[in-house]
Amino acid sequence: MLDKIKQLYQLQKQAKTVQKELRDTEIEAKSADGEILVVVNGEQKITEIKIGEKYLSADKKSELENTLLKVASEASSKAQQIAAEKSKDMMKGMGLNLPGM
């Protein structure tokens, strides 16, 4: 029983470490033309958006919205992959093999 409590404590400690690592991890995604940049952290929170001059006119509004959505989705997907990989590594390190991980 004491071993299980120790293992649970270690897992909790590792989870906090992974969470901090994810918070500090920055993932960038750029549009194909490099004019739009979206940065998210490993917790999938957008931390920065940069828009090039090319898109800063009224006639480019629709193109800007579509490109921004695509780039933000790409950044979010990358962040999800990184978070899943770190979680998987943590679970393996604890000797836990969960289905699907």
**What is the number of beta strands?**
3
Largest sheet: 3 strands, antiparallel
Number of helices: 2
User: Could you say which overall geometry the principal axes of the C-alpha atoms support?
Assistant: rod-shaped
The helix/strand order is HEEEH
Structure explained in plain terms:
- With 101 residues, this protein is of the alpha+beta class.
- 55% of the residues lie in helices and 17% in strands.
- It has 2 helices and 3 strands; from the N terminus they run H-E-E-E-H.
- The chain has helices spanning 2-24, 61-93; strands at residues 26-30, 36-41, 46-51.
- Strands 1-2-3 form a 3-stranded antiparallel sheet.
- A hairpin with a 4-residue loop joins strand 2 and strand 3 (46-51).
- Helix 1 (2-24) packs antiparallel against helix 2 (61-93).
- The radius of gyration is 19 Å and the shape is rod-shaped.
- It starts with a helix and ends in an 8-residue tail after the last helix.
- 10% of the residues are buried.
- The mean pLDDT is 87.
Write the layout of secondary structure elements.
Blueprint: H1 2-24, E1 26-30, E2 36-41, E3 46-51, H2 61-93
Antiparallel strand pairs: 1-2, 2-3
Question: Which descriptors apply to this entry?
Answer:
three-stranded antiparallel beta sheet; 3 strands; 101 residues; 17% strand; alpha+beta; single chain
Short synopsis of the structure:
The protein has 101 residues and is α+β, with helices and mostly antiparallel strands. It has helices at residues 2-24, 61-93; strands at residues 26-30, 36-41, 46-51.
